[in-house]
Amino acid sequence: MLGSTNNIGKYYVYGSTLISAFIVFLIFSILLVNSWEAVTTIGLDLFNLNWNPATREFGIWSMLFGTLVVTFIALLIAVPLGVATAIFTSEILPSTYRIVVKSLLELLAGIPSIIFGLIGIAFFSIWIQNIFDLQSGRTILTAGILLSIMILPTIITLTDDAFNNIPSKYRETAKGLGLYKYEIIKEVLLPIAKPDLKGAILLAFGRALGETMAVMLVIGSIDKIPDPIYNWLSPGQTITSKLGREIAETSFGSVHFSAMIFMGLLLFIIVLILTIISQNSLKSNGRLYE
Amino acid sequence: MNRNMKNRLFYISIGLAVTICSLILLFLFGIIIWNGLPAISLDFLTNSSTNFGADGGIVYQIFGSILLILFAALICLPIALGTAIYKSEYLKNEILHKILNTLIYSLNGIPSIIFGIFGLIFFVNLLNMGISWIVGSIILSIMILPTVTLSTYQAINSIPTVYRESSSALGLNKWQVIVQVLLPQGFHGAVTGLLIGIARAIGETAPIMFIATAFSGVELPSSFLEPVSTLPTHILALAQQATNPVALQNAWGASLVLVMLVIIFSISALFIRLRHQSISKS
Amino acid sequence: MAEKALKPMLSVVEKTQDKIIQIKDLQIWINESRILNNITLSIPKNEITCIIGPSGSGKSTLIRSINRINDEVPGISTQGEIIFNGLSINNKNIDLAQLRTQIGMVFQKPCVFPKSIKENVLFGIPHLKKISKLEKFQIAEENLKAVSLWKEVAHRLHDKAISLSLGQQQRLCIARTLAIKPEVILLDEPTSSLDPISARAIEDMMVRLKKKYTIIFVTHNLQQAKRIADNLVFICDGKLIEQGPASKMLSCPSNPETKAYVTDEYCEC
């Protein structure tokens, strides 16, 4: 009797681990199988410019471009802002206030992305429209700015942790040699924190690539590369916004559906690679709480 | 330029960044509260929505959200517990441990819209379950699985070996040690993980919007295989009619309610974690 | 009459000239607890002053307030005055980085930066002036020789500093401090985490270095203080018990508590 509960318990934990482990494989194979038709029938034309289901053109290039540009804008804003703020919270702010800042950041990180979308529609896109005198404020830039705010807590929290993990002896020694604070940060702390910082940025990069709701609501959803391509004040499309807008209206099993899933697969693979690299450089576990 | 000047400049730029971040924080919470509060009333919280959500209240949306996360938690918990126990008590092989870790972190990193597509293909179409709230619960349970697993694992794994050894010495077999000694002490980890996971899952829109929800005309589901309406998808529907001021006001009201729910779950998680820290210290 | 008045004044001037640092009524609190209580003492130039006392007596806090590295300890408050070269360092407007290049410091545990040996020696200098490659090499050689490390590392200056032994790392830290050419070197129990041979090497080095520098050396090892000190400062429970030339304090201390400490390393205050 005793032995049998022991065995049942063992089977239970083995079973649940197998389920946990194989979900990732299941998701991957489902995506792969369903994008196969697009790969075989459309082939390299998937990377064309035009997306028009009516003429059976499924070029994902403009979505890919939109995804990369929006993420680039987000990182361009959030990385300097986030790292500078993290330097403040870890190196300048007295440690008693740190818990307050951490809680506020956790609150900020907890705001659901749909609410960011609502705020984006109600404020950001209107501001962009008025400032640049546009017909519509739903642009690539709007999405990038909104996204930068959304990844800011991730960058601040992880960078703050990275700086806090540096033993204070390095700071004291550098101070003892007559270095100013900015010299200490630039020449001692930043080099030591570099791997963690890289991990933080990669993780934020992955999050930004996969963000859907907020981007979908403010980007304007036009499957075009802006003309000229640096005109980020025009509407665009990302992989996620495309999927969010169109997948429910696509019939399951069609080439159109398959091409959509192919984009999902692409996004899945990119984000997975980024996650694995960043986990390896962050090293610390328990980082799932954000 | 001398060093002192550079140092000043450095402080100024840091100060600027901090000011911007604080203003953003203030702005976000400010407008959520400012716009949300006037929309909230007892009627709003207890009435059903009418006119495609533009009028009326959000009672069924609140119900739908709670239903989804409740079942997500119920589905997730046994699998997360099992995985955490295996990871902490059975798995000795370093390489397998690394692989399992990578898989868990990968699952955590997958963009939420991908979960939605997966659910759409696998559950809604292949398993032919249709658009139903239980599919939403299953998908959300998969999303929070890594958080709950790791939180439980950390709680169980941090129990000193002495406990395992002394209870084995009393003649308990491995499973009895786990059930009678480790689980009672490590269960708070699972609860904390669940609360954190739920706080995240309740605000998710992308994974459930085309597999579990309908935008209007939904009341209480009578079976597992019916769609519900939830707060985030309701906000999405209202946000798309941004030109209608009443709809927009309802969207803000629903947003404030949603944020409050998120905060309640996060704070309970924090509370449990803090209480357990103080217990284990004393 | 005039002569009489002049004499004590002259002696005061004389005294302040060879006293490079003077501490007046220094009190330090951390939150509610008083760490240092009315410390008044002076440090003579180009000599080794050892600060001795049992652990927890406030030795480290005292030495760390001389280059104001204590400033950022949470909850700390300081009263009193420290005068260095005739100027008060407690002035709010003082440039701390500047001060710390004049009063260098070596810490208890060797702390090398994750850089090469050579980069570590030169770490503090580029901020002070632009230097050429040749100069860099010369500075590294000069200072590594000063700490007797040159022979051991000359062939591998570009190796990571962390690859050195702890004793070598600590000597590297001293070389790094010497390279910024301070007038005073503060050493906070620099040998306590080292083996006896490395500790001896550092002691010998201190005796050589005092021709060029004023050295303040905190130690809880009385034997060490006996070997190297010109002056002793005895601190117990945050109070200055006695200070004076080492020979006098070790042979016939005027205070019974000092006597108990230097003979039995026992202290009842």
TrEMBL record, chain A:
Gene3D superfamilies: MetI-like (1.10.3720.10). Its main location: membrane. The chain crosses the membrane at residues 12-33, 58-83, 104-128, 140-159, 255-277. GO terms for cellular component: plasma membrane. The keyword Cytoplasm does not apply. GO terms for biological process: phosphate ion transport. It is found in: Cell membrane. It holds the Pfam family BPD_transp_1. Keywords: Cell membrane, Membrane, Phosphate transport, Transmembrane, Transmembrane helix, Transport. One of its GO terms (molecular function) is phosphate transmembrane transporter activity. Residues 64-278 form the ABC transmembrane type-1 domain. InterPro entries: MetI-like (IPR000515), MetI-like_sf (IPR035906), Phosphate_PstC (IPR011864), Phosphate_Transport_Permease (IPR051124). PROSITE patterns: ABC_TM1. It is a multi-pass membrane protein. Belongs to the binding-protein-dependent transport system permease family. CysTW subfamily. Part of the binding-protein-dependent transport system for phosphate; probably responsible for the translocation of the substrate across the membrane. PANTHER family: PHOSPHATE TRANSPORT SYSTEM PERMEASE PROTEIN PST, PHOSPHATE TRANSPORT SYSTEM PERMEASE PROTEIN PSTC. This is Phosphate transport system permease protein. It comes from Gillisia mitskevichiae. The lineage of its organism: Bacteria, Pseudomonadati, Bacteroidota, Flavobacteriia, Flavobacteriales.
From TrEMBL, chain B:
The keyword Transmembrane helix applies. The keyword Manganese does not apply. GO terms for biological process: phosphate ion transmembrane transport. It is found in: Cell membrane. It comes from the Bacteria. Its main location: membrane. The chain crosses the membrane at residues 9-37, 57-81, 102-124, 130-156, 177-199, 251-272. Keywords: Cell membrane, Membrane, Transmembrane, Transmembrane helix, Transport. GO terms for molecular function: phosphate transmembrane transporter activity. One of its GO terms (cellular component) is plasma membrane. Residues 62-269 form the ABC transmembrane type-1 domain. Gene3D superfamilies: MetI-like. It is a multi-pass membrane protein. Belongs to the binding-protein-dependent transport system permease family. CysTW subfamily. This is Phosphate transport system permease protein PstA. It comes from Gillisia mitskevichiae. The lineage of its organism: Bacteria, Pseudomonadati, Bacteroidota, Flavobacteriia, Flavobacteriales.
Automatic annotation (TrEMBL), chain C:
GO terms for biological process: phosphate ion transmembrane transport. It comes from Gillisia mitskevichiae. PROSITE patterns: ABC_TRANSPORTER_1, ABC_TRANSPORTER_2. This is Phosphate transport system ATP-binding protein. SUPFAM superfamilies: P-loop containing nucleoside triphosphate hydrolases (SSF52540). GO terms for cellular component: membrane. Keywords: ATP-binding, Nucleotide-binding, Phosphate transport, Transport. It comes from the Bacteria. Residues 21-262 form the ABC transporter domain. GO terms for molecular function: ATP binding; ATP hydrolysis activity; phosphate transmembrane transporter activity.
